[in-house]
Recover the amino acids of this structure.
C-alpha cells in the first residue's frame, strides 16, 4: 500500500499543504482514512514533533516513549514511521506490539517514560487508523501540547531532515506488557469470578491479546467471539458498536453476562443474561453505587457527557448524587474529573474512567469490575439494571459528511441552526436536542431525547433531513 522507503532513508519533512485545514487532533487523537491525508509521511512528522515536544515538557536523562498498536493492517507501517520520527528526535522507543490502549497509558505512567503513543482508530472501520498520544502521567495530551505538535507539523519552515538510522530502530518491550494484566487482577483484590459464565466479543482487535486469559485466571468460564487479531475485520459487524452477535451468544450459551470491546479495548458495553444491552450510563450508575457504598466516591459525584440519558441523571440525583456533564470525548471527562476531584466518569458509549486505578478509559478493567460487582451482590446483571433507573426514549443518528471542513464548521450553517432552534422551541422542557460533529468519524451526530417516543422520531427525522440538505 505504501513504500517502506519513507522510513529508511534521509528525507525532508513533507510539506503540510495536503493536510486538512481544520485541526488534526480530534476528540481522541489524530484519526482518518489511511492513504488520504493520514499517511506514513504524516506519522513520521507526528513522531518527530511528539518527541521534540514531550522532551521539552518532561525532562529525562534517557527519554523513552511506550508504543502500542491494534490489529489493523496499516498499524505496523504507521508504527514504523512513528518509530523513525521519534528516534530521529532522540527518543528511545519501547514497543509493546499488539495491546489495548489502556495498557499503553498504564505502562507510560508506571515506568519512567516521557509519553506513550497508541496506533489505533478505536471503534472505526478497518480502513481508518489513528494516533493517540499520552503524556508522562498516562493522560491524553493537553490542548497546548497538541497544538505545539501540530504547529511543528504545519510549520512553513520545512528545513529539518529526518536522518537515516542504521541498525535496530526500536526496542521490543513485550515484557512490560505483563505488568498490565497484573495490575488488573490486583485491582479486584481477592475477588474471584468462579462460577460466572462470560461471553467476550473481542472485535478481532487489541482485546484478543489478553482478555480470555484474564477472565479464566479469575475462575470464569469463558466463551470468545472474534478472538484473533484480524486487521481486515476489526470492528466489522462485531464488538461494542455491533452487539447482535454477543447478545445472541449470551442467550444461546446460557451465559451470565457478555462483554463487547472496541478495536483498541478502551471501551466496553455489557449484555445481561436476557440478551439486553447495558450501556455506559448503567455501568456508571452501578459502579457508582458500589463505590459510594464503600465511601470511595467523594460527594457521590460522577462525570459524564451531554449524551448521558436524562433518566440516569435524575435517578442519580434522587440518590443524593451529583452528575457533571462535559462535551463528548473521554479527554473532556478526564479533564473534568481532574478539575473536580471526581473518581468515576465516562461515556454512554462505554468509555469508563475510574481514578482509583488510572485516568484513561479501560474496557478490560471495567468489565472485570462489573463482573466482580455481580458476584459480590449475588444478583444477575438484569436485576441490577432493573433496580437502577428507566431510560428516556433517545435516538442517535449519524449523517455522513465527507467534507472535513464543512463537518468541523457546521455551526456556521445558518439554515441548520435555524432548524435546530425551531425544534428546541417546539419541544420546550419535554426533551432535548444535541447536534455535533464526531471527533472520530466523518459524521454529524444528531441525538434527540424526550419523554414521548413519537417526538423523538419526529424531531430526529427533521434534523437529519436538514443536515443532509445543507451539509452532505
Amino acid at each position: 500500500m505504501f513504500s517502506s522507503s519513507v522510513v529508511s532513508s534521509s528525507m525532508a519533512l513533507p510539506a503540510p499543504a495536503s493536510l486538512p485545514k481544520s485541526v488534526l487532533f480530534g476528540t481522541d487523537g489524530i484519526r482518518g482514512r489511511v492513504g488520504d491525508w493520514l499517511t506514513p509521511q504524516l506519522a513520521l512528522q507526528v513522531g518527530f514533533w511528539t518527541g521534540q515536544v514531550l522532551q521539552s515538557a518532561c525532562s529525562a536523562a534517557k527519554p523513552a516513549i511506550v508504543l502500542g498498536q491494534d490489529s489493523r493492517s496499516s498499524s505496523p507501517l504507521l508504527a514504523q514511521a512513528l518509530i523513525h520520527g521519534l528516534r530521529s528526535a532522540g527518543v528511545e522507543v519501547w514497543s509493546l506490539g499488539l495491546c489495548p490502549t489502556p495498557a499503553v497509558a498504564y505502562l507510560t505512567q508506571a515506568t519512567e517514560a516521557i509519553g506513550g503513543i497508541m496506533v489505533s482508530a478505536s471503534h472505526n472501520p478497518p480502513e481508518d487508523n489513528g494516533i493517540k498520544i499520552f503524556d508522562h502521567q498516562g493522560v491524553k495530551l493537553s490542548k497546548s501540547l497538541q497544538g505545539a505538535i501540530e504547529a511543528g507539523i504545519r510549520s512553513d519552515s520545512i528545513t529539518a531532515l529526518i536522518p537515516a538510522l542504521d541498525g535496530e530502530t526500536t526496542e521490543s518491550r513485550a515484557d512490560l506488557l505483563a505488568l498490565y494484566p497484573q495490575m488488573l487482577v490486583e485491582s479486584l483484590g481477592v475477588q474471584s469470578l468462579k462460577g460466572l459464565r462470560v461471553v467476550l466479543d473481542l472485535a478481532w482487535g487489541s482485546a484478543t491479546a489478553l482478555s480470555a486469559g484474564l477472565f479464566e485466571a479469575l475462575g470464569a468460564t469463558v466463551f470468545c467471539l472474534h478472538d484473533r487479531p484480524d486487521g481486515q475485520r476489526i470492528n466489522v459487524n462485531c464488538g461494542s458498536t455491533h452487539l447482535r452477535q454477543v447478545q445472541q451468544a449470551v442467550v444461546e450459551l446460557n451465559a451470565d453476562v457478555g462483554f463487547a470491546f472496541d478495536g483498541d479495548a478502551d471501551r466496553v458495553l455489557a449484555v445481561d443474561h436476557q440478551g439486553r444491552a447495558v450501556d455506559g450510563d448503567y455501568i456508571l450508575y452501578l459502579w457508582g453505587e458500589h463505590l459510594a457504598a464503600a465511601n470511595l466516591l467523594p460527594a457521590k459525584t460522577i462525570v459524564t457527557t451531554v449524551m448521558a440519558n436524562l433518566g440516569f441523571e435524575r435517578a442519580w440525583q434522587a440518590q443524593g448524587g451529583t452528575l457533571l456533564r462535559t462535551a463528548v470525548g473521554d479527554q473532556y471527562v478526564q479533564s473534568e474529573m481532574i478539575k473536580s476531584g471526581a473518581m468515576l466518569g465516562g461515556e454512554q458509549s462505554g468509555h469508563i474512567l475510574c481514578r482509583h486505578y488510572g485516568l484513561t478509559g479501560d474496557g478490560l478493567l471495567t468489565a472485570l469490575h462489573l463482573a466482580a460487582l455481580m458476584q459480590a451482590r449475588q444478583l444477575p446483571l438484569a436485576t441490577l439494571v432493573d433496580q437502577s433507573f428507566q431510560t428516556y426514549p433517545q435516538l442517535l443518528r449519524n449523517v455522513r459528511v465527507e467534507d472535513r471542513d464543512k463537518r468541523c464548521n457546521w455551526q456556521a450553517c445558518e439554515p441548520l441552526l435555524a432548524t435546530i432552534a425551531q425544534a428546541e422551541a417546539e419541544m420546550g422542557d419535554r426533551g432535548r436536542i444535541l447536534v455535533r460533529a464526531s471527533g472520530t468519524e466523518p459524521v454529524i451526530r444528531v441525538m434527540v431525547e424526550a419523554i414521548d417516543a413519537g417526538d423523538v422520531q419526529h424531531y430526529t427525522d427533521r434534523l437529519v433531513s436538514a443536515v443532509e440538505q445543507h451539509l452532505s
